[in-house]
Amino acid sequence: KAKGRKGKKITLKTAKNSIRISFDGGRRLDLSHKGITTFPKCILKLADVDELDLSRNMLKKIPSSIQKFQKLRWLDLHSNQLKELPEAIGTLQNLFYLNICNNKLTTKNLPEKLNLLKNLHILNLGLNCLESIPTSLGALKELKEIGLFDNALTTIPNSVKNLPKLKKLNAKRNPFPDSEQEENTDSIKRIDTLYLVQEKDLCSSCLRMCHDEGDKLNKFKNVAPSPSKKPSFPLLLTPNSSAKDNQEEWRVR
């Protein structure tokens, strides 16, 4: 029988040398793009890190021992071969960011306790094999951004679309019915309150301020932009070239 591909072995020393300090002072364990096929047990001894990056490997399973990372605020598992996640992921109550994009997750194998991540602000489930989204994700009241693109979704539950703090929902390239296509693929934009009044209802000072602001805006529109030299970024030819060393500075928190 042909042997399966053997992944790189990560030692405790290697893991310790992979810890970086992020710009906000947190400790980040970066084991991305290491050719790992199984979760390295040795990193359980480093469970006090704030961020864990296991992206772009060949992981097929995340063990329940992930619950030992109780301080974790940022977990990146994108671009692996994960078909399921453990229920224990729901114990990571400090988790702010979770990226499980580009895996092989199905709706059936999404953990029910995912809805316990009460502090989660950003969740990326794009590029998986999801046929539906659990209505229970509506319990994630702090969620601001959710990625659902490139799945097999035909609808998104209202409990998710109507999350109180949701600002961005990316559900592009899903087989939605035509009637729902536009609604589900656009980013969510909300205005809490909008008041419209006639000029006669404004006091003289407010009316004068509105006119002044309008004049400024018109002047700005009428100013022709001055020609400028197109900036050149020779070191940023590809997304993962020399820019990758400073990726932590670009992450949304």
> Treating each run of at least 4 consecutive H or I residues as one helix, how many helices?
4
Name the CATH superfamily assignment of the domain at 19-170. Ribonuclease Inhibitor
Work out the radius of gyration.
Answer: 23 Å
- What profile does the largest beta sheet have? 8 strands, mixed
- What class, by secondary structure content? little secondary structure
* Average of the residue pLDDT scores: 82
Overall geometry comes to globular
Report the order of strands and helices. Answer: HEEEEEEEHEHH
> What do we call the CATH topology of the domain at 19-170?
Leucine-rich repeat, LRR (right-handed beta-alpha superhelix)
Number of strands: 8
Beta-strand content = 5-15%
The low-pLDDT segments are: 189-197, 228-253
CATH class of the domain at 19-170: Alpha Beta
Report strand order across the widest sheet: 1-2-3-4-5-6-7-8
Level-2 CATH architecture of the domain at 19-170:
Alpha-Beta Horseshoe
